[in-house]
Amino acid sequence: MPKKILISGNEAIAEAAVQAGCRFYAGYPITPQNEIPAYMAQRMPQVAGVFIQAESELAAVNMVFGASAAGARAMTSSSSPGMSLKQEGISYIAGAELPAVIVNIMRGGPGLGNIAPAQSDYFQATRSGGHGDYRCIVLAPYSVPEAYTLTALAFDLADKYRLPAIILGDGILGQMMEPLEVKRIKIKNYPKPWALTGCKNRKAQVVKSFYLKEGTLEKFNLGLQQKYRRIHEKEQRCETLFLDDARIILVAYGTMARIAKSLVIDLRRQGQKIGLIRPVSLWPFPDKIFQSLSRSRKNLRFLVIEMSYGQMLEDVRLTLDGKFPVAFLGRGGGGVPTEKEIINKIKKLK
Amino acid sequence: MNKIYSHPRSLRDISTHYCPGCGHGLAHRLVAEVVDELDIRERVIGIAPVGCAVVAYDYWDFDCCEAAHGRALAVATAIKKVRPDNIIFTYQGDGDLAAIGTNETIHAANRGENLTVIFVNNAVYGMTGGQMAPTTLIGQKTATTLDGRRPDLHGYPLKISEMLAQLPAVKSVQRVSLHSPQEIFKTKAAIKAAFQNQINGAGFSLVEILSSCPTYWGLNPKAALDWIKDVMAKEFPLGKIK
Q1: Rounded distance, CA A89 to CA B48, Å?
Q2: How far apart are CA B181 and CA B65, in angstroms?
């Protein structure tokens, strides 16, 4: 039997990256994700990989751009203020169609905010956080073991679709320790004929995101949009509980979903017709499950719960398109909605 | 009969978008000649900047990578770490290397990354319309210093090469110019030495090239070359700095 170890979410993400074939990491210190660079500083040399403590978040993400252009599986990590700085590089990675994994262990904002857990970067992650019309795949683990599997998945999807994939966690997930079975990850190797290796035995090639000639950028963008539609169709992920007969459905992701899930199980035991949708992929947002409920059900109520003032809420409302009432409970700035607050909110829905 | 000169294999035989009298075309060619002479065309990966030379990869016939404005040395650092057997160089202007990218420049140099840096200093932002650069001379009129650069308002021309030469991990820093055939030969020799350093694993080498921008200096091409010799090279002395 594979042994179980007690490990923090941050370290589980880092180990998953190593197991998934990540051989380049660059990062800059920022709380609450510092365990990731510390772990990588130790692990990368052990696997003949590269660890760089960069001089800035900008340098770190642009190093990932370079490493990926050279064909390596590459990752950087940060927390909210640092993610704002990385947006330039993420836009270039998206524009050059390079694979990369970027971890955001969110903290309270805006500005320097605080170092308490938050989910207030949902918009930044799921929309184009930087300039230009692009998307990143965004995966939101709700436990340490899931942080491990989703990080590995992020590397696979980034290579498969050639885009940045974001692991969106929060300070609780990053710091929390849980038992983890360190499973070996099967790595699918995607050919990278576009990688810069020197032009031996082939024509010279360029990695770029620049399309100056009239019409060329629009054409490129249409190709990106086609790719995004394919991802939207194929890569939706969510966990659902008790949807069959639920009258009220809670919607939450990440740490917030951990709290919501245990509450839903408790309330079920008490006989309440309550269910849960936990989006695991935030982009693509798992709209199919909402749409199927829209088609098949009547008189449902939704309650979106977030550690923010209502960001994923917009996706739920957009997806349901007015078909069902959607209520919201959220706290920000390090506040985490409690079970009691959720129960009170549910009572008001009835 | 011996063939003593031909078009460099590493330079595509097409015309460039550069203005008449611009130094970039020359600098591109010198890089291409050096790459050919060192027989590293199949190993070299160039990092193109943002600025007038943004499409340098359209002119060079070897692998190239884009970098965001100022980030060329971060990109180059990573490519070299991932592919240590390749020869990696950046080609950057003054705004790219010494303003928006100063941080990346200083830290790549301070880490002693085994890279070659071609730094083209023409004392203005060309691509965007001739604004003040960190290297703009005192009194020099630009789109954003209409009455000339003033030290009390804009500070002094930034001598980034001299700053970098202070760093212990920097192997070599040389300032050269394109204002005459003799200087062009010296420039080529400096570029070659900087590549040779990397091939030998010697570490961070930078060549600063004083290059003309007749368009935004408001001079004809010949007068622009004279201005490098008579004015610019007084502020930025030529020679080996380290």
Answers
A1: 16
A2: 30
- Asked casually if ipTM beats, i.e. exceeds, 0.90, the reply is yes
Q: Which residue of A has its CA nearest to B59?
A: A204
Rounded Cα distance, A181 and A2, in Å: 6
What's the gap between Cα A9 and its chain centre? 14
**pTM over 0.90, yes/no:** yes
For chain B, the average pLDDT equals 97
**Contact (CB, 8 A) for B122 and B93:** yes
Using 50, 70 and 90 to split pLDDT, how confident is the model at A350?
confident
How close B51 comes to chain A (CA, Å)? 12
Mean pLDDT of A126-155: 97
* Chain B residues closer than 8 Å to A50 by CB: 78, 81-82
pLDDT at B4: 86
Residue A34 dihedral angles phi and psi, to the nearest 5°:
-60, -20
Q: Is the pLDDT of residue A1 over 70?
A: no
User: Do residue A122 and residue A40 come from a single domain?
Assistant: yes
Number of H helices, E strands in chain A: 12, 15
Contacts of A295 (CB under 8 A, 6+ apart): none
The verdict on B163 touching A (C-beta cutoff 8 Å) is no
Decide if B9 contacts B59 (C-beta within 8 A): no
Rounded to 5°, the CA angle A73-A76-A77 comes to 140
Nearest to A58 among B42, B43, B71 (CB): B71
Mean pLDDT, residues B171-177: 98
- A125 and A208 in a single domain? The answer is yes
B66 with A71: Cβ contact below 8 A: no
Query: Domains in chain B and their CATH numbers?
Result: 24-240 (3.40.50.970)
- The answer on A152 and A282 residing in a single domain is no
Q: Distance (Å, rounded) from C-alpha A110 to C-alpha A53?
A: 25
CB pairs under 8 A between A and B: 129
Do A157 and A253 sit in the same domain of this protein?
no
Q: Domain containing A276 — which CATH number?
A: 3.40.50.920
Q: Is the pLDDT of residue B200 over 70?
A: yes
Contact A67 B103 (CB under 8 A): no
Q: Give A104's strand partners.
A: A78, A168
Does residue A99 have a pLDDT over 80? yes
Q: Answer positive or negative: Cα dihedral of A127, A130, A135, A140.
A: negative
Question: Domain holding A8: CATH number?
Answer: 3.40.50.970
Give the integer Cα–Cα distance in Å for A298 and A314: 21
CB distance A333 to A114 below 8 Å: yes
pLDDT of residue B222: 97
Q: Please state whether the peptide bond connecting residue A284 to the residue before it is cis, i.e. omega within 30 degrees of 0.
A: yes
| Residue B100, pLDDT score | 98
Same domain, A215 and A296: no
My answer on whether A333 and A212 are in the same domain is no
Q: In this structure, what DSSP letter does residue B232 have? A: I
Looking at the complex, does the CB of residue B83 fall below 8 Å from at least one CB of chain A? yes
Contact of B199 with chain A, judged by CB distance below 8 Å, is answered with no
Q: Number of folded domains in chain A?
A: 2
Structural domain boundaries enclosing A269? 239-349
